[in-house]
Amino acid sequence: MQFLYSGLTTGSIYVLVAIGFNIIYNTTGIVNFAQGEFVMIGGMLIYTTLSLFNVPMLLSFILTIILSFILGIISEKLFLNRVKLKNEINLITITLAIAIILRGLAMIIWGRDSLKVEPYIVEKTLNVPGGVITTNSLMVIIISIIIALSLSAFFKFNKYGKAFRACQIDTYAAANCGINVKNIKMLSFAIAGALGGIAGILITPITFVTYNDGIMSGLKGFSAAVLGGFGSFTGAIIGGYLLAILESFFALIFPSGFKDAFAFLVLLLVLFSFPNGIFGKKKADRV
Questions:
Q1: What's the pTM?
Q2: In terms of DSSP H, where are the helices of 33-117?
Q3: Do the bridges between strand 131-134 and strand 125-128 make them parallel or antiparallel, or are there none, so unpaired?
Q4: DSSP-assigned letter for residue 132
Q5: One digit per residue, pLDDT tens: the chain, 287 residues?
């Protein structure tokens, strides 16, 4: 059971990253491989505001989320929006370039050392059936579930949320219906950036953050999104937690050094066996 609780904590971060992937995919139809870097930047920003400038905690949270939101806007406006030929390959390549740029800037600004902030609440260990869980881990799980369910409901039932999905299904039809497609695409990157910032805020007190953490965060979140079904918010939640729990039990059997490789093994098995994921739907295109 202890491995299950550990997996739930890690899975909460995977869920937020996977949802970030899905928001952009459902709006633009592309995969944003810079999503993991948004998590890393969020961790760096909360470290800067809290530990370096001693900004009050609540204000630090707000500043980090706002700056991450703005980073998402800049990424879309400065790079993706300026591409002349906007096909999927070009746009995905640009997101890879954004990831490399953010990683390089983080190394220049914050250095190569691992950084950590103090826990946001008093660290206590709670006895639960079959093991223990810390108050900080419990906080991460609760906040992630609330955010994931709220966003899922927004994009599924709210008319503004449906406008995001309409842009991916048929850009021209959405524009003819009065939807500002350019603003919707920009907002999708902004929301994904803010989600990455929140994930960075939540994970930094539990683990150290370094300039290259975005690579693994992004790949794990991508694996979770594929496992659950790319584009499905329910799939992102189930896939994130399932991947993290399986990872925890994998570490029980094999050396911990192979733990990270397990996510890619799951990714390959999913792509070979059921490429649409658990909750993914098959799409048919008229030719």
A1: 0.91
A2: 35-47, 57-74, 88-110
A3: antiparallel
A4: E
A5: 777 888 888 899 999 999 999 999 988 888 999 999 999 999 999 999 998 899 999 999 999 999 999 999 999 998 988 887 778 888 899 999 999 999 999 999 999 999 988 888 888 888 888 788 888 889 999 999 999 999 988 888 888 888 888 887 778 888 888 888 889 989 999 999 999 999 999 999 888 899 999 998 998 999 999 999 888 888 899 999 999 888 888 777 777 667 777 777 888 888 788 778 887 666 544 44
